[in-house]
Each structure stands twice: as structure tokens, then as C-alpha cells.
Specification:
The protein is an alpha/beta fold and 441 residues long. Helices cover 42% and strands 17% of the residues. The structure holds pyridoxal-5'-phosphate.
């Protein structure tokens, strides 16, 4: 009853004061009784060492990747300052969506698309570029699929003065020329992947000149360039422990904002590609669940075109197609998986965050897969009610939210509070929306 009173006087958007902003990231692994399995060196099948990892990643990145005991990792002051340009991200009550679907569920979304990258990716590009700069690194390489990660990294590299080479999955490169142009505007070199720049790219082009490419292939190319150049490091925008750590700002801000009004969510939902936005949103809540302090339903919404959780295998696999990366124990479709070219909904990565994989295997989180037609239908309902055009990826979470909320029609009095991450905007995904509007999805 108390909770309902709080909800009545709620503003549409909940803001945080500067003093309420997170000063440290939350490392969920520190609270897990059974930790994710370690990354393995494929040559020896032994756990990778700090020295091995720091050949690919920055030293601080390698350290964070291996740290499964420190609960709170301080956010460097420069990173806090860079965050302040676009954080706190808005936490919004989806009153109009609730009306549109006729539910008594109370729905909140954390909107991460309010920056030029259009997504949550900037939360991790800033610290990753900051650590590289501190370590005297001159150039970074990375892969990008839909383009949000490449854009976020291009912005951070421009601001901190590092060079950047982006290997962009060919089908996205060709379908999203504007994304490519944003990255170039921020000074990045962008190559369609597979490219002629690397051995792994040339090999695949020779076998299959018309390949649409994949994230796995683009990762191989980016890692190859980093391994071959001592002043160059590779950075990754999802899947890794360090990325999920940085994305915990999403969950920490959401939790503080809701607590200001005495609200505890019952169901927490995010879309899952490699698992960083949903993992970051869930992290502080999952911590309470693991410590036995409070129960939540935690749901990862994935694409049925790349259903790593719901149809993949839990095993050690490569993170890339060319087998140049360490092996991770995760839910995976297989390192050589290439999703259908007809797929427009994002979330194409073959594997899943090892931390979330472990939680899923232990039954602490749930996962559901959604068809792209149903995802775009949900996005259209959201756009027309809340007035924000969601990224196709985010639509998987919206679909899950609508399906859960619909179980509670307007007259039910046990309706849950649902919190979800609106991971980004769909401004650059109009080819996908066009297909949906033409009835071709
Ligand atoms: C990259 C991206 C995703 C998927 O990545 P995760 O690591 O699973 O969060 C989801 N939504 C948007 C808008 C993205 O840019």
C-alpha cells in the first residue's frame, strides 16, 4: 500500500543529484558463490594470466577482467567527469505505454540512448579509452556490428586523443552508411569486415567473397592488428567482465533513483546481445538476490535469430571466428555461427557474457527469445505511446515487458513493478523499420 502511494506522486522522470551518482562500479562476481569459469589460453588450455591478457588489452582492462573478488571498483575522477556530460540517464515512468497496453503493472525504463552514440556503449568506451591513454597507448582497434560501439569508441578516442581503427561487419557497413560517417567524422578509420587489411579477413574473403560478415570475424581482424603492433590495443564493447562492470552504472543509478521513492522493482528486464546492458542493469539487484536479501525476477531478452541462452550450449568456446581470442565458458551458438542476412534486429553475437551465463546456468536469471516481427511491433507500440524511437535491440526488452505487463489487466491489484533498460535509439535503423512497415519482416 505504501508503495502505491509513492507511485501516485511520482514525477514522469526521476533525476539524481550529483552527490547521488555512483562513485564506484559494482563487480557482481565478487558476490557470486560459484564464480564464472576462467578464460582459457587455447594453446595451453590453462587459465589466461595477467601477462597474456595484457598483450591484447590494457593493463587495467586485464586486471578488471580477472578480478572476481573486489566488490566495488572506484570510477576514476576523469571518467566520472566524462560520464557527467550525459549521466545520470533518465529513469522514466512509462505511463503512456501502460495506458496503451491497458495494464496495471507499473513500468519504468532507464533510457541509455540520450547521447550521440545512441546507446549505453559510451559507459564502457570512456573508461577503456581513459585507461589506454593513461598507459601511453596510441591506437585502439575494435569491431562493431550495428555501429553503436564503434561510434561510442570514436567519440571517446576523439576526446582523449587516440587513433582508432574500426572493423565494421560488412552487412551493417553497407546498410548503415550514416553510422560509418559518424565514426569517420569523429576521426576513426572504418573498414568493412572481412577486409583486405588482415590475414583472417583475406582468408575469409577468398573462401566466401559475398559473406555478410559477422562480429566474430570482425573481432579476429581487430585483435590481429592489435597483436601485430606494440602501441596498439584491442577493446571490446560487450561480453567481457570489464564491460559488464562499467555498465553497472545503469543498475546503480536506477536503484538509487527508485529507492528515493521507496520503490522496489519486481521484474527487471533487458535485451541481451553479449549481455552488457542487461547485466549492468541487473547487477546490483542480482547481488541482493544472491546474498538472499531480496528476490527479483531477472529476465534477459534475446533474439530468436541468435538464441545463445535459450538454444545455445554452455561450454568453452572462442569469442571470435578466427580463434585468436581466449576461450570463455559461456552459452554459445558456436564461434563460426553467422546469423541469417535477413535478420534486422541486432543482438547478433554468437556468445554471451560468462557472468550472465553462469547466473543463467544456476537459475538465478531467466532468458526468453523473441522473433524480429514481434520485436518491431513492440517498438512501434512504445514509439507511439512514449514518443521515443527505440533501437531494434531494445525492442526485445520492450517485447518482454509488454508480454509480462499484459498478464495484469487494468483491474488487477497484484500488478508488479517492472524496470527495463531502453538501451538505445533507432534513428539509424530506418532500413529495418522500413522493412517492418512494408510487412517484409
Ligand atoms: C550493443 C547494443 C546492445 C547489445 O549489447 P549488450 O552488450 O547485450 O548490451 C543492445 N542495445 C543497443 C542499443 C546496443 O547498441
Amino acid at each position: 500500500m505504501k508503495e502505491k502511494d509513492c507511485l501516485k506522486n511520482l514525477p514522469k522522470k526521476i533525476y539524481l543529484e550529483e552527490s547521488e551518482m555512483p562513485k564506484a562500479w559494482y563487480n557482481l562476481r565478487a558476490d557470486m558463490a560459484k564464480k564464472p569459469e576462467p578464460l582459457l589460453n587455447p594453446a595451453t588450455m590453462e587459465p589466461v594470466t595477467f601477462e597474456e591478457l595484457s598483450q591484447i588489452f590494457t593493463k587495467e582492462g586485464a586486471k578488471q577482467e580477472l578480478d572476481d573478488t573486489t566488490r566495488l571498483i572506484p570510477i576514476p575522477e576523469e571518467v566520472q567527469k566524462a560520464y557527467a556530460a550525459f549521466r545520470p540517464s533518465p529513469l522514466v515512468r512509462a505511463t503512456e505505454l501502460e495506458k496503451a497496453i491497458g495494464t496495471s503493472a507499473k513500468i519504468f525504463y532507464k533510457f541509455e540512448g540520450n547521447n550521440t552514440s545512441g546507446s549505453h556503449k559510451l559507459n564502457s568506451s570512456i573508461p577503456q579509452v581513459y585507461y589506454a591513454k593513461e598507459e601511453g597507448i596510441k591506437r585502439l582497434t575494435t569491431e562493431t556490428g550495428a555501429g553503436q560501439w564503434g561510434t561510442a569508441l570514436a567519440i571517446s578516442c576523439a576526446q582523449m586523443g587516440l587513433d582508432l581503427s574500426v572493423f565494421m561487419v560488412r552487412c551493417s557497413h553497407d546498410q548503415k552508411p550514416f553510422r560509418r560517417e559518424i565514426m569517420r567524422t569523429f576521426g576513426a578509420n572504418v573498414f568493412a569486415s572481412p577486409s583486405e587489411e588482415t590475414n583472417s579477413g583475406r582468408k575469409i574473403l577468398k573462401e566466401d567473397p559475398d559473406t555478410p560478415g559477422s562480429l566474430g570475424v570482425a573481432i579476429s581482424e581487430a585483435v590481429e592488428v592489435a597483436m601485430g603492433n606494440p602501441d596498439t590495443k584491442y577493446v571490446l564493447g560487450s561480453v567481457l567482465n570489464q564491460v559488464m562492470l562499467h555498465q553497472s552504472v545503469i543498475g546503480l543509478e536506477s536503484k538509487t533513483a527508485l529507492e528515493k521513492y521507496g520503490i522496489k522493482p519486481d521484474i527487471i528486464i533487458g535485451c541481451a546481445g553479449g549481455g552488457s546492458n542487461v547485466g549492468g542493469l541487473m547487477a546490483p539487484f542480482a547481488g541482493e538476490k544472491i546474498r538472499g536479501e531480496h528476490d527479483y525476477r531477472l529476465i534477459a531478452a534475446e533474439s530468436s535469430s541468435c538464441p545463445s541462452f535459450t538454444n545455445g550450449e554452455f561450454k568453452y568456446d572462442y569469442c571470435d571466428t578466427g580463434k585468436v581470442t581466449p576461450m570463455a565458458k559461456m552459452y554459445t551458438m558456436g564461434y563460426d555461427f553467422i546469423p541469417s542476412a535477413n535478420h534486422a534486429g541486432g543482438l547478433r553475437y554468437h556468445g554471451m557474457s560468462p557472468t550472465l551465463s553462469e547466473l543463467y546456468n544456476q537459475g538465478i536469471i531467466e532468458a526468453h527469445a523473441y522473433e524480429q516481427h514481434d520485436v518491431f511491433e513492440a517498438n512501434t507500440i512504445f514509439a507511439r505511446s512514449e514518443g521515443i524511437l527505440p533501437a531494434p535491440e531494445s525492442g526485445h526488452a520492450i517485447r518482454a515487458v509488454i508480454d509480462e505487463a499484459k498478464k495484469y489487466p487494468s483491474d488487477s491489484d497484484d500488478a508488479p513493478v517492472i524496470l527495463f533498460c531502453l538501451s538505445g535509439t533507432g534513428q539509424f535503423d530506418m532500413m529495418a523499420y522500413e522493412k517492418y512497415n512494408k510487412g517484409e519482416l
